[in-house]
Amino acid sequence: MLGSASLSVTAAAAIVPTSNGITGTGRQLALSFPSSQKSLLGFVSSNSNLNARSRSTSSFKTAVASVDSNQLSSSSTPPDKQESNKYYFVVANAKFMLDEEEHFQELMFERLRHYGERNKEQDFWLVIEPKFLDKFPDITKRLRRPAVALVSTNGPWITFMKLRLDRVLSGSYEADSREEALASNPTTLEFEKPEKWVAPYPKYEFGWWETFLPTGSKESKV
User: Please, which domain of life does this record's source organism belong to (predicted)?
Assistant: First the structure.
């Protein structure tokens, strides 16, 4: 049977072990136990510290495991399991986009050159009379036809092009495949040549946009 213990408490300062227990110095905290209980007290204290360290270590390991799991799930998801690809666009009538806008051709070829130098896959296209416009009646009713859309999977760049071109409408949509996203309706483009060209730069050559049409679209669009 355990022996009796005596406890006397005043305002505590430093704590110093004694042969009969633990005694505070200065303003005293006195806590005494029989010698038969000292080993028990030491075991409980050590075990408590061990449990605290174990809980801390376990929490740390759990947090790390959670981060690693999230990273793996985001990078190992098969492409066919991910959500539909999102496409962004600006659109205007074809004459403005391809024949009148002063800097559009230059911006397009400059970006194409930039991608080529860095071996980046092209992620922007011109789509003449795009089928996806059927999903945007509020846009189509404001467009002169035929229309041309600049389409990309790069949203921030399309935002930049909207600000740069100014007289365009913009939006976004999702598609299950690139073919679906860039599908178009057959049409023929015809632009009248101005009687007098007064701009300081050469007139755009008809058909310059063919470079940016989706594969398989060039023959039916010129």
Answer: Eukaryota
Q: What type of residue is 127?
A: V
pTM (whole model) above 0.85: no
DSSP state of 142: T
Tokens (6 digits) for 142: 């404001």
pLDDT at 217: 65
How much is the pLDDT for 194?
73
Q: 183-213 b/e with 16+ CB inside 10 Å = b? A: bbeeeebeeeeeeeeeeeeeebeeeebeebb
Q: How far apart are the first and last CA of the chain?
A: 103
DSSP state of 98: I
Within the chain, strands assigned E span 6-9, 15-18, 21-24, 29-32, 85-93, 124-128, 147-152, 169-175
pLDDT at 58: 43
Strands lying side by side in the sheet with 169-175:
124-128, 147-152, 85-93, 169-175
Per-residue buried b or exposed e for 76-103, using 16+ beta carbons within 10 Å of the residue's own CB:
eeeeeeeeeeebbbbbbbbbbbbbebee
In the three-class reduction of DSSP (H, G, I as helix; E, B as strand; rest coil), residue 44 is classed as: helix
Name the nearest CA neighbour of 139 among 93, 183, 176, 96.
93
Q: How far apart, in whole angstroms, are the C-alpha atoms of residue 123 and residue 112?
A: 10
pLDDT score recorded for residue 191: 85
Low-confidence residues of the chain, pLDDT below 50? 1-33, 35-48, 50-83, 219-222
Q: DSSP state, 99?
A: I
Token pair 């679209």: residue:
217
